[in-house]
Design goal:
Blueprint: H1 2-13, H2 23-34, H3 40-58, H4 62-66, H5 69-82, H6 92-101, H7 103-106, H8 111-141, H9 149-177, H10 186-200
Length: 210
């Protein structure tokens, strides 16, 4: 999967002998590897998206479509966090802490409220990014518009780099905020997070969690 995305980025950038026309077909293959295509509805959506990508590719719009990827990545993250803030649902970061570090962690004074605040932090940050990135993309591709180069840099760099920087900033603040408490080493936390992720992303009320 990582190789497919690497090939897509190489094609998008025109690295080596990879033409940009290959980027969208490779993206369609990468999505096929990520999505549960055994579900009829998901398969139908994937086929429709693939047909649209191939049609846009044939009309020479590969670069413009690839420019929307940072917008889509941040939109996906925004939905992932924001949907768990609804009434009757457990905030995503609260769920992560409970499944990765255990229920006892949430009983520490201030931790439950902090995890809810961090879920809001991610939902608002990625939501603001979606608005900014979509505006940048629109300006860059508006017919006849003369957009400053910094917009292209913001679109392609901050779309992926800002979530990573925000994660590092939150981690540093968490260590400071709860400096009297033990913390899992980052590699152990990441390993447990990957193992628990299929259960974490299920958006169920707390009483129905498996």
């Amino acid at each position: 999967m990582a190789l497919l995305f690497a090939l897509m980025l190489a094609a998008a950038a025109g690295v080596g002998d990879w033409p940009q026309e290959l980027a969208l077909p490779v993206l369609a293959l990468a999505l096929a590897g990520l999505l549960p295509l055994q579900r009829a509805a998901v398969m139908a959506m994937w086929l429709l998206a693939t047909a649209g990508l191939l049609w846009l590719d044939a009309r020479g719009h590969a670069r413009a479509v690839l420019g929307t990827l940072p917008v889509l990545v941040n939109a996906g993250l925004c939905v992932l966090f924001a949907r768990t803030l609804r009434r009757g649902h457990e905030p995503l970061v609260t769920r992560v802490v409970r499944m990765v570090e255990g229920e006892d962690r949430l009983q520490i004074p201030g931790v439950a409220a902090y995890t809810r605040a961090v879920t809001w932090y991610w939902a608002l940050l990625t939501g603001a990014q979606v608005v900014l990135l979509a505006a940048c993309w629109s300006w860059l591709h508006w017919p006849g518009a003369s957009a400053p180069p910094v917009l292209r840099l913001w679109l392609h760099a901050s779309g992926y780099a800002l979530p990573v920087l925000a994660m590092l900033a939150e981690y540093a603040w968490r260590r400071l905020r709860f400096r009297g408490q033990p913390h899992l080493a980052p590699h152990r936390f990441a390993r447990r997070l990957v193992a628990c992720w299929p259960r974490i992303v299920r958006d169920l009320p707390p009483g129905e969690q498996a």
